[in-house]
Structures are given as structure tokens and as C-alpha cells.
Design brief:
Elements: E1 2-5, H1 10-19, E2 23-25, H2 31-35, E3 42-46, E4 56-59, E5 62-66, H3 71-76, H4 84-90, H5 96-101, H6 104-110, H7 118-122, E6 127-132, E7 135-140, H8 141-144, E8 145-147, E9 150-151, E10 158-165, E11 172-178, E12 189-198, E13 201-210, E14 217-218, H9 220-226, H10 240-246, H11 257-278
Parallel strand pairs: 1-3, 2-3
Antiparallel strand pairs: 4-5, 5-10, 6-7, 6-10, 8-9, 11-12, 12-13, 13-14
The structure holds flavin-adenine dinucleotide (FAD).
């Protein structure tokens, strides 16, 4: 037996959070499968009707994406080329039904190592904004996800938005995912890259890999190696050894650690080559 509450405003949601422990819910597409058929117990705080938590807005500081924005909405939005990777991830998160209900905020708060939304946001330098009855705070996405299924979110905090700084909106990005089949699959490895070029050379490089460590991560040493390289040659500079050294892959039934690291390096090369072909 659960008590289901669906506030219309953030202050109302904050008051409910202050009144006692609540299970925060958005699309429910991670929460319900985890119950494995059992009933949901306790107080449920459904955020999907809260005004202002949905949609995207561009401002002088960058782009703000409401936490309850669904993957279908991300995929359909007119966004700069730097967010192509996020949109490519959006259309590969489950099927249409999951994309219509699942949210960007739920993906980050669930913090699965295989959460497809994380690498495309890491290459944008994304931050998250949290609200609680005590006020608001912002932190880097890389600091928000602290471990597999662990975040820095306090029990009385709600993720209200994902913030992409202006600097992250430069360049072109790509997302590639490897699973046991082409669609409807949990990632064995996935990558996102964002490259900004100037005069045919790599001026900025952001590379992130997911499902190959407890938490998706950027690869600063590999990124540094690409700076200044001719764009057309950049993919060839990504070595299996350098990528493997930056990861700590799981060894499980979906893939061995060596397979995951090798696949991640190949996905990165393909993603960078694709950006180079498009001209960054
Ligand atoms: C069939 C199927 C296929 C899937 N395929 C993929 C896939 O390919 N790739 C992938 O990455 N994921 C996949 N998922 C997982 C899931 O759909 C996504 O992670 C989705 O983005 C979760 O969003 P949600 O709104 O449904 O989260 P919910 O289930 O509502 O919540 C997930 C967690 O986040 C918390 N939470 C949610 N919103 C907030 C908020 N604003 N503030 C604070 N806490 C919050 C909840 O308390 C809960 O702990 C799949 C799921 C299913 C059922």
C-alpha cells in the first residue's frame, strides 16, 4: 500500500519532502522494474506534474534541461550540434514507450553504470541543480554520481535541472553504444565524444565512456593527446592501450573486461572519425 502524491508546484513538493521520507518518482521506468513485480510501498512523490521541471531553455549561461524532460522530448528538440550525442542516446534508451515516460533526471538519479544519458552529458561539462527544503545547490555531474547506483543527492533533495554551460555547447558530438543486439539493449560499452575544431585541427576534445567502470568517466589523458592534431587524423591517435588504462571495466556475462575496453576504444575511434567526416 502506498500513498501517491502528485504536487503541481516545487514549493508544494518541497513541503511534502520536508514532512517526511518520500520515494521520489518521475517516469517510474527504473523504479517499477526494480520492484520485480512487488508492490510499491510508502509515500510516493510523483514529480511529473510539477511546473517548470520539464522542457529546455537557452539562456546567457547555457542550456537548462528540466529534470522531468522525457527522452522523447530530448530527441525531438531543436538543439545545437554539440547535443547530437545526447539526442542519439535518447533514441536508444529502451523503445518508444520508455522514451515517452523515462526522464533525463531519472536516468542520472538511478546512476546505473550503463545509464546512456551520462557520457553525452559528461562531454558537455554538465552540472546538476538540486532543490531541497533547505535551498538549492549546483554540482558537476561528475561529482553528483559517486558510484554504481549512488549519487550525492540527499534524501530530501530533488534534481530540478541539468545545466549545460555555454562552453559545452561548442563543437559537434556523437554517441555510440554497443549491446548484444542493435536495439532495446543494455550497453556493454557506450561512448560520447565532443570535438571542436579550428583550422582543421582539434581545438577541444571531450571523450567519455560508460559501462566500462563503476561510473561513466571522461578520459583526460586521451583527450589531451588529440589537441592540436589534424582533425582527419585524430581517430587514429586513440590507442587501445590508452583507453584501457583509463577504464576499470566490469567482467560479467555481457562482456569480459578486455572485450569492453577494446570495444570502447573502437567506438571512440569511430565516433571521432564520424565527427571529422562531418567537419566538426
Ligand atoms: C524496458 C526498459 C529499457 C530501458 N532501456 C534503457 C537504455 O537503453 N538505456 C538507459 O540508460 N536506460 C534504460 N532504461 C532505464 C530507464 O528507462 C532510464 O534510466 C530512465 O531515464 C529513467 O527515468 P525515469 O523518469 O523513469 O526514472 P524513475 O524510475 O522515475 O526514477 C529513477 C530513480 O531516480 C529517482 N528520481 C527520478 N527523478 C528524480 C528527480 N527529479 N529528483 C530526484 N530523484 C529522482 C527515483 O527516486 C529513482 O531512484 C530502460 C528501462 C526499461 C524498463
Amino acid at each position: 500500500m502506498s500513498l501517491y502524491q502528485r504536487p503541481q508546484t516545487l514549493p508544494e513538493a518541497m513541503a511534502l519532502l520536508a514532512a517526511g521520507s518520500q520515494k521520489v518518482m518521475a517516469g517510474g521506468t527504473d523504479i517499477y522494474p526494480a520492484l520485480a513485480g512487488a508492490d510499491l510501498h510508502g509515500l510516493v512523490l510523483d514529480l511529473t506534474a510539477v511546473a517548470g521541471l520539464r522542457g529546455m531553455a537557452a539562456g546567457p549561461d547555457g542550456l537548462r534541461i528540466g529534470a522531468c524532460t522525457t527522452w522523447a522530448e530530448v530527441a525531438a528538440a531543436a538543439l545545437p550540434p554539440a547535443l547530437v550525442a545526447l539526442q542519439q542516446a535518447a533514441v536508444q534508451i529502451g523503445g518508444r514507450q520508455i522514451q515517452a515516460a523515462g526522464t533525463i533526471g531519472g536516468n542520472l538519479c538511478h546512476a546505473s553504470p550503463a545509464a546512456d544519458g551520462v557520457p553525452p552529458l559528461l562531454v558537455l561539462g554538465a552540472e546538476v541543480e538540486l532543490a531541497s527544503p533547505r535551498g538549492r545547490r549546483r554540482l558537476a555531474l561528475a561529482a553528483f554520481i559517486t558510484g554504481p547506483r549512488q549519487t550525492a543527492r540527499a534524501a530530501d533533495e530533488v534534481l530540478v535541472a541539468v545545466l549545460i554551460p555555454q562552453a559545452g555547447l561548442a563543437g559537434q558530438s556523437r554517441f555510440l553504444k554497443l549491446g548484444a543486439r542493435a536495439w532495446l539493449v543494455i550497453s556493454i560499452a557506450m561512448v560520447a565524444v565532443r570535438i571542436k575544431a579550428a583550422q582543421g585541427r582539434v581545438a577541444e576534445a571531450a571523450l567519455a565512456v560508460g559501462a566500462c567502470s563503476g561510473v561513466a568517466r571522461r578520459l583526460p589523458a586521451v583527450e589531451a593527446h588529440l589537441i592540436g592534431a589534424p582533425l582527419a587524423a585524430a581517430a587514429g591517435l586513440i590507442s587501445d592501450a590508452a583507453v584501457a588504462a583509463a577504464l576499470d571495466p566490469l567482467d560479467d556475462l555481457r562482456g569480459s573486461a578486455v572485450y569492453r575496453a577494446t570495444a570502447a576504444a573502437e567506438l571512440l575511434r569511430r565516433a571521432v572519425a564520424d565527427v571529422a567526416e562531418a567537419g566538426a
